[in-house]
Amino acid sequence: MKKESFPLTARLLRALMIFQGISGIFGGAGLIMNPAGEWLGLPLAWLNGSPFSDYLIPGLILFFILGLFPLAVSYFLRSPWRLPWFAALLTGIALIIWLTVEIIIIGYQTEPPLQLIYGVVGIFILILAILPSTVKYYNPME
Known about the structure:
Blueprint (H helix, E strand, L loop, with lengths): L7 H26 L22 H21 L5 H25 L7 H17 L1 H7 L4
Helix pairs in contact: 1-2, 1-4, 2-3, 3-4
């Protein structure tokens, strides 16, 4: 069975994964290098009542799980293999979980509206991953 060409939905999924990866790397690096959060304008007071005394652990999670991982996945999304598609789906889920936990811990922050922006990114990653043309490209037997 001949594979179809790289569909627009898969291209958009890959673009969002690249965006998420770059964002996660820069945000995570900023928190790792400055765990007090000052460089990114994040007050330590937001962490009151959380398991964290500073932003180092959240920065590491952001850097590796929501930065390097999606960037690596985006590289492999060009190929019609099932594993990168599944990893992209997991990235969307991880991003939604990350934001949900963040909102529970620090509350919903409107300035800057990063929670809203990345919530939309996470939802769009999930939607693009489950659209029929995307699923067909990465799972040709279905």
